[in-house]
Amino acid sequence: MEAVCTKSFPPVLDYKTEKYLLTKNRKIGVFHRLLQLGILFYIVGWVFIIKKGYQESDNDPHISVITKMKGASVTKNFREFQERLWDVADFVRPSQGENVLFLVTNVISTPGQALGVCPESPTILDGKCREDSNCTAGEPVISGNGIKTGKCNRTHFTCEIYGWCPVENPDVIRKTPLNEAENFTLFIKNSVYFSKFNFSRSNEKKTSNSTYFQNCKYDPVTSPQCPVFKISELITKAGHSFKELSFQGGVVGIDIMWNCDLDQSESTCTPQYSFRLQDRKNNFRTATYYWDRENHEYRDLLKLYGIRFEISVTGEVRKFGLVPTAVSLGTGCAFLGAITLLCDLILLYLNNKANFYWNCKYEEAKPPKRREDTESNLLQHINTD
């Protein structure tokens, strides 16, 4: 006897097998095909072509950065210095730069300071006074230069302090900054190593010409492998001019990005540079101490304004891998299966003929009785009669 299929709802604990049901619902059919095409375009176009989902990556490079600045200039009538030669030992702090260095562009000089009592600077709010009661003895001047002595100086109307005298005068800042520094050059040597692929790269051009780096200047088109940057051009690429920043300083960020595809030639793996202004003001103080013949201690105080360069390096290399390829393909197949499930749900729950499609899709299969059991039941029925 043949098996008989009766229409029924599937019980929860029974096993149900897949059943393919061909429907003549064109709306669902068109919707299904459009979703399939969309998934295919997503997998091929976005995952594999644009995002390169068939590659594995390493975005944690080991980084080495060495910087050197070169240049010199002369300042005339510079107060006590009269005429002075400035070179990288004066302009650049620290003298041996790494990923951060400071280029001096302006200065306030306070030479010959000695420990003693003198009036506080009029620019310090907490140091102003009208009478001695405004200057509490032993109290430090907030954002000032020393400790209050308890007396008010009637000439300057500021508290007298114990500190390094005379105090710094901000009015003596150079009105003509050290603009010669814009012609200095900055050499940035950068090396990266990606341990996952045992791949290393440097931004220096491999050349046998010993004078190449003395004459070349970085240009993204003509000299992309020259790591020598002119200071004025570097700041221009950050969207500003050197003269804007030279008076009170600033902070400039230099980003070096390595983005390499190891499935292509290694010669295509070159760094991309970008420059940005992070702050418009920057300064710090430094002092040189010395003693006279009577063993009295003095110091020359310099407040240095300048441009701080901060170099950051990031990178990612990619290469074909079986695991990411399999994962991307498996994800695509899962999306295609989800489309079929979505169309089934729409057909069985949201369609106006949902009951009809439900009864056609789910049937209960009852196996036929064995022939021997049927004959035995028939003979038993005859004997009973």
TrEMBL record:
Keywords: ATP-binding, Cell membrane, Disulfide bond, Glycoprotein, Ion channel, Ion transport, Ligand-gated ion channel, Membrane, Nucleotide-binding, Transmembrane, Transmembrane helix, Transport. GO terms for molecular function: ATP binding; extracellularly ATP-gated monoatomic cation channel activity; purinergic nucleotide receptor activity. Glycans are attached at N183. It is found in: Cell membrane. One of its GO terms (cellular component) is postsynapse. GO terms for biological process: calcium ion transmembrane transport; response to ATP. ATP binds at K68, M69, K70, T185, N283, F284, R285, K303. It comes from the Eukaryota. May act as a modulatory subunit rather than a functional channel. Belongs to the P2X receptor family. This is P2X purinoceptor. It comes from Eleutherodactylus coqui.
